[in-house]
């Protein structure tokens, strides 16, 4: 830890000062919390900036109900202190590591955290590419896990950061996949070789069924649209990754949708943060597998678009308009 500021190690953080537009972001300097017990300190070199960060900044993210938090769920960095647990996991000082946080806070230069959140980044995978994967990849993998043994799977927003990965993982698992994508996004996902239905078409659920040759067994959806059910067979599984279909209503829709899903036999809520918090070894296996697939080239990942953390405002603006297949990445050095 070298960022000395008046004697103690310090870190730079990108914080949401109030809910609102890009101007709500502030950069602040604060002390690095010393590690406790088997915690470690990571010098963050890259962190992704995606849809959830924008939603949280605007105040629509149910898991961040009050401003004042540091954005960012995933990161890549270098281990600057090791612990008995990190060593047991094969992670020593200097190791290149990636991870997802159970709560936001990755848009910073240093993290103090449990070593069990970390996996090694494979050699040959550059950090800016690696960092587009942890949150979205773990979400996609978990969503498919919740879809059980569904054979035909609808992936809503197949051109999106989560959707593109979910579509590929589902195909790899031998499932039949149909995706939705608007015309602006089609080119970005045409290479996946799955049928793509325009979600703006009035008959899109029927078109999904037609493309799959029958009703879908499961859907992975981030919109919360009741019309998703029309594409599903009776008692088909509906996995919710978000309830983001009505701009400005996301928080209320999440609360309502989550409550309804909790008592439903067919709806499931996929939360990567909860998964990371509660199933640590499984999460690490999943993330390590995703990084290995990206390193080998068998998993197509979003193209990173780097911005220095010190230009977080430009990064947020760019994320608001990111082209399909691209992901904004904050760089810390
Ligand atoms: N549950 C979790 O743990 C978790 C983790 C990560 C992200 N998320 C959430 O998941 C959602 C998606 O995240 P992301 O990073 O993949 O976002 P993203 O990259 O912005 O992708 C969203 C996609 O949805 C498509 N879309 C827009 N309107 C649609 C509609 N009505 N029907 C179907 N598709 C539509 C968009 O493309 P086109 O309109 O061009 O087709 C876009 O490709 C966000 O709300 C995010 O907060 C949840």
Describe the overall structure.
Helix 4 crosses helix 5, helix 4 packs across helix 11 and helix 10 crosses helix 11. The chain has 12 helices and 16 strands. It has 333 residues and is of the alpha/beta class. The chain has 2 domains: 187 residues, Medium-chain alcohol dehydrogenases, catalytic domain (Quinone Oxidoreductase, Chain A, domain 1); 135 residues, Rossmann fold (3-Layer(aba) Sandwich), CATH 3.40.50.720. The model has no long low-confidence stretch (mean pLDDT 96). The protein binds NADP nicotinamide-adenine-dinucleotide phosphate (NAP). The site of NADP nicotinamide-adenine-dinucleotide phosphate has 30 residues, from helix 1, helix 4, helix 5 and helix 6.
What is the molecular shape? globular
**CATH class term of the largest domain:** Alpha Beta
- The name CATH uses for the topology of the largest domain is Quinone Oxidoreductase, Chain A, domain 1
CATH architecture of the largest domain: Alpha-Beta Complex
- Name given to the CATH homologous superfamily of the largest domain: Medium-chain alcohol dehydrogenases, catalytic domain
